[in-house]
Every structure is written in C-alpha cells, then in structure tokens.
Amino acid sequence: MPDRKPYVGGNWKMNTTSDSSTSLARGVCEACEAAQGAVDVVVFPPSPYLIGVASIFKSRPSAIRVGAQDLYHEAEGAFTGEVSVGMGADCGCEHALAGHSERRHVIGESDELINAKVKAMLAGGLTCVLCVGELLEEREAGKTNEVNERQLRTGLADVGLRQMENVVIAYEPVWAIGTGKTASPEDAQAAHEFIRGLLVELYNDDVANRTRIIYGGSVKPSNAATLFAQPDIDGGLIGGASLKVDDFAAIVKAASGA
Ligand code: 13P
Fold first, then answer.
1. What region does 63 belong to: left with phi over 0, alpha with psi -120 to 50, or beta?
2. Whole-angstrom Cα distance, residue 108 to residue 183?
3. What residues flank ligand 1, with Cβ below 6 Å?
4. Which CATH number fits domain 7-81+98-246: 3.20.20.70, 3.30.70.100, 3.40.50.10490, 3.50.50.60?
5. What distance in Å separates the CA atoms of residue 254 and residue 93, rounded to the nearest whole number?
6. Mind listing the pLDDT tens digit for each residue in 7-52?
C-alpha cells in the first residue's frame, strides 16, 4: 500500500445494546492496541450508543475513532428521526459513512441525497467514507464499472480537491455483503483500480494516489490478508466480523501487515 495508511472500519449496523456496545468497544480497544499506530481504526456503532462508545476510547487513551453510520445533511429543524452532522460530531464522531448499500437499497437513498450528505459531512469537519458498489444483477449484466462510476461521480459532485483529504472510498459489492461470498482478490482489485483511475480523471494523480479505497463484503480473518495485499486495496469496511473482538482484531492486524 504505497504511502497510504490502511483504514479498517467496523460497521456494527443495527446491532448491540447499550451494555454490549461498551463492552465491545473495550474489547476492541485492548485487542487492537498494538496495531493502532499503523492502521486507522474506526468503529461505527448505532447512533444511540455513540456517546457511550466514544467515552470508552476517550478514557483509555486510544487512537481508535468513532464514526456514524449515517447523518442527515440539514443542520437542524423539522426532520423527524434524523441526526445532523453537528449532532454526530457533538456525540464524538470524527468519521461518518455515506451511501452504504443498505441505505441505498433498503432505505431507498438516491445518489443526490448521498451527495448532499457527503458535502455536509465534509463541511462539518468529518472524514466521510463514501460507499459504492454494484448489485449482483448489475455485475452479471457487465455493469460493475458503470454503476461504480455513476455512484462516485454523483457522490463526489462539488467535492473539492482539498476536501478529498477527508474522503475514504469503500467499494462494497452488494452481493458480497453479509452473504459469506467475498469478491475474489482479483475482482476486488480490478474494481479498486477502476475507482482509482476515475479519481485521476475527476481530480488528479496526487488525489488518486493518496485516497484510501477500502473493500467491504464478507471480510474475515481468513481472507483479509490476501485482499489487503492487493495494490489498490487499502483496508476494509467490516460488518459481521466487527462484532467479534478477536475477528476484528485479526483483520486490523492483517491490515497492519504484521
Ligand atoms: P459484512 O462484512 O457483514 O459482509 O458487511 C460488510 C458491510 O456492509 C460493511 O459496511
């Protein structure tokens, strides 16, 4: 991974309780201690547990950061059920996901809404992890690059060159999420290479070389090292395995190259 610090995110999705989120955070803190300097480690708990989890990492001290799974682009007002970027930051978030496939395909978010969220997260000083990825039928129809290109072009519309310092791209093929089916290292590398090439076109070589592009979709301790060894894969966004301390720590260790 030339000059790019690996990034490993633990997306806890709609799992854990108040108690189990803090004990998971404590476990991650201890188990990932050795690799923390070499890898950016970020956990994304459900929003009601952000404050509790952030307080665990603050009290250690720890280099692990806390992120939100989603934040709304409007600053405040009549948006029942939503959580603003400012509220996320106030709860201890320094990172946030935008455009996760479950937000796109289960909740129904559009590329345009995702772009509004990306811009609000960046304007609010957060690191934004923009998630992209194709459905199985899109892959089978040979549309993988087309879908990723559309999601990236729209997701990054009006995001300036300097702001790209705070953007991480997560390539998560939808058919590999929570299914146990991982993209082969070659297929994942091909998608990452395509995305990096698009960043050259949208920005320049420097931005493309510096932006972390991480892979998500059934990453496990058994496949993490091979995926992370690919030249354009700079870490991972981990779902199921991030709920198990030992598995998550093994994946973080694989990203550190240790
Ligand atoms: P799994 O690791 O459970 O496949 O989930 C991946 C993911 O969606 C991370 O955001």
1. alpha
2. 24
3. 11, 100, 172, 177-178, 216-219, 237-241
4. 3.20.20.70
5. 25
6. 999 999 999 999 999 999 999 999 998 887 899 999 999 999 999 9
Q: Which of 109-118, 174-183, 227-236 comes out lowest in average pLDDT?
A: 174-183
**Cα(83)–Cα(44) distance, rounded to whole angstroms?**
14
Residue 66 sits at φ, ψ, to 5 deg, of -115, 140
Tell me the best of 100, 172, 251 to mutate to test the pocket of ligand 1, counting ligand atoms within 8 Å of each CB and taking the most: 172
Which tens digits make up the pLDDT trace of 25-34?
A: 999 999 998 8
The residues carrying an active-site annotation are 100, 172
Cα(50) to ligand 1 centroid in Å equals 19
Query: Which residue lies with its CA nearest to atom 9 of ligand 1?
Result: 239
Task: Express each pLDDT in 185-198 by its tens digit.
Answer: 999 999 999 999 99
Residue to mutate, 107, 219, 220, ligand 1, most ligand atoms under 8 Å from C-beta: 219
The whole-number pLDDT of residue 2 equals: 55
